[in-house]
């Protein structure tokens, strides 16, 4: 579970660092434009990290399901290799 939480915090950090710099500069400038390439790369990164976050949340939900519903089989079902 801690392995998944560490990965979730890293993905969340990456997701917030994709949009925050452009947002901060837009708040300070009068001209609020973004290039097409910048927009596409920002959208790609947001979708990539957002998708990764969703996969991690589903994996964490499955981990908790196995821990609650099958506690005696937990160590054989959720090993380190399966988490990776």
TrEMBL record:
Record-annotated G-protein coupled receptors family 1 profile domain positions: 1-84
GO terms under cellular component: membrane
Predominant place of localization: membrane
One Gene Ontology MF term: G protein-coupled receptor activity
One Pfam family it belongs to: 7tm_1
Bilayer topology: Multi-pass membrane protein
The keyword Transmembrane is assigned to this record: yes
Keywords per UniProt: G-protein coupled receptor, Membrane, Receptor, Signal, Transducer, Transmembrane, Transmembrane helix
Official protein name in the record: Olfactory receptor 4K15
Protein species of origin: Sciurus carolinensis (Eastern gray squirrel)
